[in-house]
Amino acid sequence: MKIFAFLILVLFADLTMGDDIYMCPTTNMNTQGYHEVKTDFADADDFYLGVKACGEVLVSIEFPQNKNAVELVIKNNFLLRNLVGEVLAESDEVVLDCDKMNYYWLNKANGVLTIGRGLQSATDTLMTYPLPSELNWGRVMFGYFGNDVPEFEKQFKRPCGYPTRNDCTGIAPMYIIALGVNRNKNATNSTQSAAKTSTIK
Known about the structure:
mainly beta, Jelly Rolls, six-stranded antiparallel sheet, 0% helix, signal, Farnesoic acid O-methyl transferase domain-containing protein
């Protein structure tokens, strides 16, 4: 008679539930200029970004055509301007740090662009500006000009601790640990200890 006792411990990252915000580094930011940001959240109300920089950085938002573009200039404060350089709004906050990644959120609900600090929308608001309801995050670009290369992070659907590619869209871990006891003395395969590690894309 075989009696098996199994203890199965499953650690699984549930990527479809909850309000967790996963931020991962962007790539190919080693040259100055504008770099288009690919996002899975083009139609979401919120857009999250992280910035670590000493010099001025730019976030360009084009919607739904280039003529409607606005640009967010980040240095010692937030400054929102249009394509011709007209300042539309600005904050009084010091928001960048050379040695620390700082996170910010942009919200477009109800035709108003609201910008704040942190990874929780609607908290620590820095500035607001009325914008058309057509605004979306389908064409956002990070940019900089100068010798100081900034570091950017953007939002991903999955944690980026176990990437398969540099774009951080990789895999989340699932660990299955099975501990078994076989009381049959004639058994040829011991099941006293077994462990498996698997991944889910």
